Amino acid sequence: MPGVLQPFSVITPSGRQVDVAFSNDSSQISALRSLECIQCRNITYNGRKIDGCHHTICQPCIDNNDSLATGEHNCDGIIVTGKTLTSYSIETRTLLDNLIVLCPFSNCNQKALLSDVDQHIRDHINPANGSLSEIQIANDPDELPPNSRWIEHEGIIYFVVESDPQ
Q1: Does residue 59 sit in helix, strand or coil?
Q2: Which neighbouring-strand residues pair with 159?
């Protein structure tokens, strides 16, 4: 439906979930819906299509369920087996590569192509210890985590939160 923003999230090539910036193009919405994994309902960059019914199965679900690797699944109430799984077409890969997605870090308003967002996320990594650095805002110095790095600018307290990369 034109003019209605549809929320979607996509799993990047490195396995991070990011939100699509917006999608109000009905053909793009339909194409994205067709890429939802039949098992977990995620839209993933590394999915496979099942020959015949054209359902999608994502690589993490294939890795976690041996029967899915042979295309065995419930297809509209009928269990089907022995189907071939094929990689996404060039058109599907181009659609995914060109999706505009949001950086998953709060307080980072960066938008990037899905094909480029993993590099942007790596830019958040602290080279000294390999942790992910995210800038957050505190209302009061007492709210700061112990030993956190912070600065105050124009009455706003900014501090860095570091976590293990996924």
Answers
A1: helix
A2: 136, 150
- Three-class SS state of 94: helix
Confidence at residue 1, expressed as pLDDT on a 0 to 100 scale:
39
CA distances to 42, 43, 77, 126, 131 from 83, rounded to whole Å, are 21, 21, 16, 44, 42
pLDDT tens string 31-43: 888 898 888 888 8
Q: How far apart are CA 20 and CA 110, in angstroms?
A: 12
The DSSP 8-state label assigned to residue 149 in this structure reads -
With b for 16 or more beta-carbon neighbours within 10 A and e for fewer, the 45-71 pattern comes to: bbbbbbeeeebbbbbbbbeeeeebeeb
Find the helix packing angle between 26-33 and 90-97, rounded to 10°: 110
Cross-strand bridge partners of residue 44:
11
**What pTM was computed for the model?**
0.65
3-state class of 70 per DSSP? Answer: helix
Instruction: Please report the beta strands in the chain, taking only residues with DSSP state E, as ranges in sequence order.
Output: 9-11, 17-19, 43-44, 47-50, 56-58, 73-75, 78-80, 85-87, 100-102, 111-113, 132-138, 150-153, 156-163
Asked if the model's pLDDT at residue 162 lies above 60, the reply is yes
Q: Cα(56)–Cα(49) distance, rounded to whole angstroms?
A: 5
Both tokens of 85, joined, read 């799984």
